[in-house]
């Protein structure tokens, strides 16, 4: 029989052994899992940084181990790598031919007796993959030493650094281009280190300073101190040429001591530059007066910016400097020339305004009285005919004055237009009526059908549009042949473009003269044909058409006649336009009707007499004042309901009279005031309206124009101010 206690002891011992074996198994499994994890981690990191590992048996001269990552770097499978790389010489065929000797020289370095044991040897070379692709490798090699001092194994790693090398190459090329540009640029270039200023800017920001210009203006000594911390890193050749410096050191020495050149201008410039660099754009533009090495002054334009990558440190600040001394001189000359031109233009405008006033004032009396004589039925036919001749001559002279003034406005670009929807038919009809008598005198017929223009509207200045057609029609009469014909044709295309053609049967224009047709004062020989004119009417007409967004074209055949075509874009959707009425006959009524109390301020005696006769002919009466002061006193003591005032008067001019009345009548109903002036410039009209006039009547004016103005503003005619 067996011993039970001994058996139990054996069983207990066996259980302990089994438990120990199980623990060892668990420990082994854990170690295997940890090893697999480390191996997987090792492989992941190796792939991430393109690193492969190897081990070499130096005694047998064959591989001991290649990693999967090394095979991937070589561009082949691990199996192929083992097959093709069995001895040291086999690897030579993978190495780039230009790098083979360097590779061989570095390969033996780890085995050299003088090489520090335990330290790695690092070198760089290129390989050519089986597919012909060139890769840059960085190799690290270690040696394992045995007790007798012989290295039996080497091991190491290779890293694919192709991307790093490419980036380095591109960076070097960029730096080379930058250096070449820096040195050869035709502008002065300076690179500086502003890191001390950047630290101060950051500190000020942390203290709540946002407006650096204001801060440095209030703390100029701080700014001067900071300017002294700027370090000049480099300058190009052009900069030294600009400053007349013999060397970089000479230039840097001249800039080093801020006390030598610091002033308020530079303080403002540096404050502005710091604010610009601290802003979102990281750039500053400025101009300054600089001093060359020889002490002469010149003017520069500065562009200061941060080099990309140095936004946080300001260690590289690039300043481009351009010598703009000559340009500044040209600018000064240009400004001076412009001022002279403006003064000349102003003098010309004043001269034209004065001449217009001086010519229009006597013309007002000539035209006014001649028109009154025309309407005076008590005079014989012969005297009325002479009065008409005087009136026509005066109108011609007035037209010449207006053309010269219009030309001056065109040349100065001072023509002001009041653009609004205008009915085309009434404007052309009124223009035809104006030239009808002149055409009749030469036996010229005018073919015009107002019906085709029904509802046709254009965007234009009504007065200027009428001037365009009057000029074209009067030319068609003047340059036509006796008993000729004028036809006015109308076309409307699908785009809504209205074309009005005025065709005459006159002498025509030769092709070589067409280019000179719109040149001022060039009458193309008409001055030798006894035809009245100045040669500027068509120039003004063409410009007016263009200002109203239209177009004027001409077609002519010598001996057959000419066609002038005006085209405008029509307006759709308007039911009512601007009616341009014909010049109606004025009925003279010797009886007095609804006479409002009118005050007239006029210093010219002839014009006083004329105005009195005109008002009387229209059924009005008035009191007269010889100057503005007298008119103001009469207005204060009287109960006038309308004021007609000249502008140029002694003691107090018309504009000042209007202003005085407007100030003093604040508590009463305002009186209608009509400025009657021989100043025909648009600026003069504007001044009258700005002074407080309700309307402007330009001298010389017709009886019809005066009648319409009185009916418009006379309180007894139901008009309100």
- CATH class designation of the largest domain: Alpha Beta
**Strand fraction band?**
15-25%
- Provide the spatial order of strands within the biggest beta sheet: 2-1-5-4-3
Unreliable segments of 5+ consecutive residues: 523-531, 573-595, 717-721
- The N- and C-terminal alpha carbons lie at a distance of 149 Å
State mean pLDDT (0 to 100 scale).
Answer: 79
Oligomeric assembly: single chain
Question: What best-fitting shape do the alpha-carbon axes yield?
Answer: elongated
CATH architectural designation of the largest domain: 2-Layer Sandwich
Number of domains as seen in the coordinates: 4
Give the CATH H-level superfamily of the largest domain. Histidine kinase-like ATPase, C-terminal domain
Q: Name the helicity range.
A: 40-55%
Q: Rg to the nearest angstrom? A: 50 Å
Short description:
With 721 residues, the protein is α+β, with helices and mostly antiparallel strands. The chain has four domains: 49-167, PAS domain (Beta-Lactamase), CATH 3.30.450.20; 185-323, 2-Layer Sandwich (Beta-Lactamase); 416-569, Histidine kinase-like ATPase, C-terminal domain (Heat Shock Protein 90, 2-Layer Sandwich), CATH 3.30.565.10; 597-717, Rossmann fold (3-Layer(aba) Sandwich), CATH 3.40.50.2300.
């Amino acid at each position: 029989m067996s011993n039970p206690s001994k058996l139990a002891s054996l069983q207990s011992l066996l259980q302990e052994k089994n438990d120990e074996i199980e623990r060892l198994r668990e420990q082994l499994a854990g170690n295997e899992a940890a090893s697999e994890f480390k191996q997987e981690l090792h492989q992941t990191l190796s792939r991430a940084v393109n690193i492969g590992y190897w081990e070499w048996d130096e005694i047998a001269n064959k591989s001991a181990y290649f990693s999967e990552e090394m095979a991937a770097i070589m561009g082949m499978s691990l199996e192929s790598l083992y097959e093709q790389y069995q001895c040291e010489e086999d690897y030579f065929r993978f190495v780039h031919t230009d790098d083979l000797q360097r590779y061989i020289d570095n390969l033996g370095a780890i085995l050299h007796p003088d090489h520090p044991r335990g330290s790695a040897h690092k070198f760089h070379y290129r390989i050519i993959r089986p597919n012909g692709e060139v890769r840059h490798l960085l190799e690290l090699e270690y040696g394992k030493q045995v007790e007798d001092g012989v290295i039996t194994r080497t091991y190491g790693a290779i890293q694919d650094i192709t991307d790093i090398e490419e980036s380095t190459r591109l960076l070097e090329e960029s730096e080379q281009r930058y250096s070449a540009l820096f040195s050869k640029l035709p502008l002065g270039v300076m690179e500086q280190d502003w890191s001390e200023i950047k630290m101060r800017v950051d500190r000020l920001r942390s203290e709540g300073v946002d407006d650096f210009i204001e801060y440095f203006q209030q703390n100029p000594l701080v700014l001067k101190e900071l300017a002294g911390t700027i370090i000049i890193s480099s300058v190009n050749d052009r900069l030294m040429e600009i400053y007349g410096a013999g060397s970089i050191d000479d230039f840097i020495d001249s800039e080093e001591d801020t006390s030598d050149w610091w002033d308020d201008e530079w303080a403002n410039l540096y404050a502005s530059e710091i604010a610009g660099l601290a802003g979102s754009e990281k750039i500053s533009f400025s101009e300054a007066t600089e001093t060359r090495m020889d002490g002469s002054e010149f003017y520069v334009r500065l562009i200061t910016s941060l080099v990309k990558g140095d936004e946080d440190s300001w260690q590289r600040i690039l300043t481009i400097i351009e010598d703009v001394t000559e340009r500044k001189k040209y600018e000064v000359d240009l400004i001076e020339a412009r001022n002279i031109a403006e003064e000349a233009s102003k003098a010309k405008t004043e001269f034209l305004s004065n001449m217009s006033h001086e010519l229009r004032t006597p013309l007002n009396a000539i035209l006014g009285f001649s028109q009154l004589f025309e309407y005076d039925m008590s005079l014989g036919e012969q005297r009325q005919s002479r009065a008409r001749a005087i009136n026509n001559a005066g109108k011609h002279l007035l037209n010449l004055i207006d053309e010269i003034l219009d030309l001056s406005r065109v040349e100065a670009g001072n023509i002001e237009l009041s653009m609004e929807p205008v009915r085309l038919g009434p404007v052309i009809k009124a223009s035809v009526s104006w030239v009808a008598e002149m055409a009749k005198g030469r036996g010229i017929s005018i073919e015009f059908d107002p019906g085709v223009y029904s509802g046709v509207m254009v965007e234009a200045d009504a007065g200027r549009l009428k001037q365009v057609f009057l000029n074209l029609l009067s030319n068609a009469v003047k340059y036509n042949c006796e008993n000729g014909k004028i036809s006015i044709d109308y076309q409307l295309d699908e785009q809504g473009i209205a074309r009005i053609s005025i065709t005459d049967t006159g002498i025509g224009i030769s092709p070589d003269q067409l280019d000179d047709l719109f040149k001022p004062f060039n009458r193309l020989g008409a001055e030798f044909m006894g035809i009245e004119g100045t040669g500027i009417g068509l120039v003004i007409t063409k410009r007016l058409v263009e200002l109203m967004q239209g177009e004027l074209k001409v077609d002519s055949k010598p001996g057959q006649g000419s066609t002038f075509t005006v085209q405008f874009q029509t307006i759709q959707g308007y039911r009512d336009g601007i009616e341009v009425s014909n010049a109606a006959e004025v009925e003279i009524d010797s009886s007095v009707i609804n006479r409002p109390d009118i005050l007239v301020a006029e210093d010219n005696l002839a014009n006083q007499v004329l105005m009195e006769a005109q008002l009387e002919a229209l059924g009005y009466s008035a009191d007269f004042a010889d100057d503005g002061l007298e008119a103001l006193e009469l207005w204060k003591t009287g109960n006038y309901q309308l004021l007609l005032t000249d502008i140029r008067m002694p003691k107090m001019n018309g504009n000042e009279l209007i202003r005085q009345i407007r100030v003093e009548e604040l508590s009463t109903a305002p009186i209608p005031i009509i400025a009657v002036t021989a100043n025909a410039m648009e600026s003069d009209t504007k001044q009258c309206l700005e002074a407080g006039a309700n309307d402007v009547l330009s001298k010389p004016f017709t009886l019809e124009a005066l009648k319409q103005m009185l009916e418009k503003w006379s309180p007894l005619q139901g008009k309100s101010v």
